[in-house]
Amino acid sequence: MVQIRSYVLVALFIVLIAAEATIVRGDANGNGNGNKGNDNGNGNNGNGNEGHDDGNVNNGNNNGNGDEGNDNGNQNGGNGKGNGENDDFDDVEPLPTGQERAYCKAKGGCHQKTLVCPAQCPQKKPKNNKKKKGCHVDCSSKCEVTCKWRKPNCNGYGSLCYDPRFIGGDGVMFYFHGEKGGNFAIVSDDNLHINAHFIGTRPQGRTRDFTWVQALSVMFDTHNLVIAAKKVSQWNDNIDALTVRWDGQDINVPNDEAAEWRANKEEREVIVERTDDTNSVRVIAAGLLEMDIKVRPIGKRENIVHNYQLPDDDAFAHLETQFRFKKLSDLVEGVLGKTYRADYVSPVKIGVPMPMMGGEDKYRTPSLLSPLCNACRFQGKSAPGIATI
Questions:
Q1: Which residues does 368 contact at the CB level (< 8 Å), separation at least 6?
Q2: Contact by Cβ (8 Å): 151, 161
Q3: Where is this region: Disordered (predicted)?
Q4: Ramachandran quadrant class, 74 (left: phi over 0; alpha: psi -120 to 50; beta: rest)
Q5: 10 Å Cβ neighbour count for 109?
Q6: Are residue 168 and residue 313 in the same domain, yes or no?
């Protein structure tokens, strides 16, 4: 009898230790993974296309996008392709230390567990969010909280950077060059459509354009949101080269403590918030998507290394973007969108330095504001800023 009682006490002790580990795990992982995210996010800043020389390390490597990739949720009918929901947890009263807590509702190993933000980043959205890391809650199978800068990770799932290099929802890296001055559907679904406008140059002797994404047009419900990089001759990090338009009207994103612009529409809330003093924002359309966007130029060294032969009076300011989608359909289209399908198999050649994705004819649109292309699916209504041709 004594021996049985001892076994019971040992079992209870193990259960208590496991429960405590669930709460503390976020603090243990927070700072380490947060710093890793910073390395990934900032490692590309200023290096530009030099980064894609090593880009093939992501080729077919689903694990290579690790922490940032799982930001996307993986809730699209269990397809594991980063198509998630942000409301997979409820906020719980913070600890006396100010550390915020989250009660996970998502199905899986983290269901009904409470995660605590690390002391290094106690809030999900810091008051001075441009200068501090935020607490990221991941109620997926990872079941953790991490400290992360709120910037695009060009090596993460759903990223679009460089001469355009994508990391698809399946984790496979590919290039889509499009053409200078062209507009292409990046995502086209029943209730969401995203176009990209390409700028570029073709040095003498080349058979194709060097291209970069200069603007994004996001269409949903009856609304249109355009985020673009201004054309600048000489780059200055302290001058804002980013513009935002809502339903055809320029909007000003303030630079105060909250540093955000909001549209509380009947259909859904839309938020644009600064994540740095200049040239960096996070865009949220509730129930549809989040985007982290940064404007950057082509540097002089980058120009020489890749032999772009850019003119001296154009910095070729362009966007680096990372998307996180919610509830895309299984029939979603677009250069990036189709990689989130449950049955998608990438056609690109694995193992080559620059695996190319075709589809220019399928995804070319008449303008940045038009949701029409040969394969487009958008069913939204016409509205200011959305072209019908």
A1: 183, 195, 197, 215, 217, 226
A2: no
A3: 26-96
A4: left
A5: 13
A6: yes
Q: How far apart are CA 98 and CA 115, in angstroms?
A: 14
> Are 164 and 175 spatial neighbours (Cβ–Cβ below 8 Å)?
yes
- Full residue range of the structural domain in which residue 72 is found: 23-148
Closest CA to 283 of 328, 325, 248: 325
Annotate 344-378 with DSSP letters as a single string.
Answer: ----S-TTSSS-B---HHHHB-SSTT----TT---
Q: Please tell me the predicted confidence (pLDDT) of residue 126.
A: 80
Distance, in Å, from the CA atom of 41 to the CA atom of 68, rounded to the nearest integer, reads 9
Rounded to whole angstroms, how far apart are CA atoms 136 and 146? 5
Q: Residue 199: which of 223, 178, 168, 219 has the closest Cα?
A: 178
For residues 64 and 211, membership in a common domain is answered with no
More confident residue, 14 or 325: 325
Q: Which among 142, 174, 175, 171 is positioned nearest to 64, based on CA atoms? A: 171
pLDDT band at 291 (very low <50, low <70, confident <90, very high): very high
Task: Let me know whether 275 and 344 are in one domain.
Answer: yes
Give the integer Cα–Cα distance in Å for 315 and 346. Answer: 34
- pLDDT tens digits along 47-68: 334 344 333 333 333 333 333 3
Token pair of 346 as six digits: 């990438």
Residues near 266 by Cβ (< 8 Å), separated by ≥ 6?
Answer: none
| Encoded tokens for 235 | 């780059």
Say whether both 141 and 206 belong to one domain. Answer: no
The string of pLDDT tens digits covering residues 93-144 is 999 999 999 999 888 889 999 999 999 999 988 876 667 888 989 888 889 9
* Number of domains into which the chain is organized: 2
Place of tokens 């040992």: 10
Q: How far apart are CA 275 and CA 164, in angstroms?
A: 23
Dist. CA 215–CA 211, nearest whole Å: 12
Q: Please report which helix (H) or strand (E) contains residue 216, including its range.
A: strand 210-220
Q: Which two tokens stand for residue 118?
A: 């690390």
Which of helix, strand or coil describes residue 2?
A: helix
Last residue of a domain, one of 86, 114, 148: 148
Q: Is the pTM of this model over 0.90?
A: no
10-33 residue pLDDT tens: 454 444 444 443 333 333 333 333
First to last CA, the chain: 82
